[in-house]
C-alpha cells in the first residue's frame, strides 16, 4: 500500500493510437494511453508536489503537468493500469526521504593498515635510485 495514493479521478486519461510495429491492428485500435496529471491541482501534500515539480524529467511540462505514455501492452486496459502504476511508482520514489549521512571516523586498525602500506610503498620507492657499485 502506498503512503500517498493517487486517486484515479485526479488524472486525465485519453486513448491514442500506439506507435511501432503491429500491422493492421495498430492502425485501427487506440490502445495506447496518455495519462495527464496536473500536479498543482492534486490532493497530494505540498512537500510531495514541490518535489514532483522540481524533477528534471522530460515527462514534466512547463505548466506542471506530468504526461505518461503507456503503449507496452496490446489492450487499452492493461496500458491504463501500467500508466497508473508508473505514476504511483514515481510518487512513491519521491516520497522517500534520504537519511542524513553521519560522518564516521576510520577505525584504529584501518589507520594502522593505511600507515603500514604507505611506509612500505615509501621503501619500495627509495630502492628506485641509481645503482651504486
TrEMBL record:
- The Prokaryotic-type class I peptide chain release factors domain is annotated at 17-33
Q: Cross-referenced PROSITE patterns, in alphabetical order?
A: RF_PROK_I
**Can you tell me which family this protein belongs to?**
Belongs to the prokaryotic/mitochondrial release factor family.
Source taxonomy:
Bacteria, Pseudomonadati, Pseudomonadota, Betaproteobacteria, Neisseriales
Name listed for the protein in its UniProt record? Ribosome-associated protein
One MF annotation (Gene Ontology) recorded for this entry: ribosome binding
Query: Which organism is this entry from?
Result: Vogesella indigofera (Pseudomonas indigofera)
Pfam name, any one: RF-1
Please give the residue ranges the record annotates as the region Disordered.
Answer: 95-133
Spell out the InterPro entries in the cross-references. Answer: Pep_chain_release_fac_I, Pep_chain_release_fac_I_sf
The UniProt entry's GO biological process terms, in alphabetical order, are: rescue of stalled ribosome
